[in-house]
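New to this. Comment on this protein:
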Amino acid sequence: MAKNNSRILTICLYLNYFVHGIGLVVLAQNMGNLASYWRVSLAEVSYVISGVGWGRLCGYFFFSYLADKVGRKKIIFSGMLAYLVFFFALPFSLNIYLGYFLAMLAGLANSALDLGTYPSFMELGNRPWQIKNRHLDSHGDHRIAMTLAVAALLADCSQPITLEQADSVQISYPDFFQDLDQLLMNK
């Protein structure tokens, strides 16, 4: 992909997250207005906002299956269409039930865009990791030690990498390096 096209694609992909943020802001900042319009309490309007999360959760199961069948581009476009419906229909929703449906639709849209966006970012950055400093330090944190060990395996390394305080993995996973070696042998 040409460098200019990848920049345009990157900007469009980041706009997905901007649109999702705007959707949540629209709901959160208009809770009082929505409560009076729907004649419900603020607590009930907060249930509508939770619909975004439920829609997102349900969407991951649905769209992850569909993405393999129909392709990522169609999933992204369906997410964009769902957000358009959400933004244009919310001001005209006559009751809390329609508002909740639209919030779930926004959650579905977000999961559709996530499933299309994350792999696209991975493909845009499809070049080997480069570790500039060959001396890594976990600072005694077992989680950082394990993460750095795996990251070092993925990096494009022409020289050996040292991991200081790697023995900190004993805290939570004493056999980590043996299991990692076993995995690499089976590869």
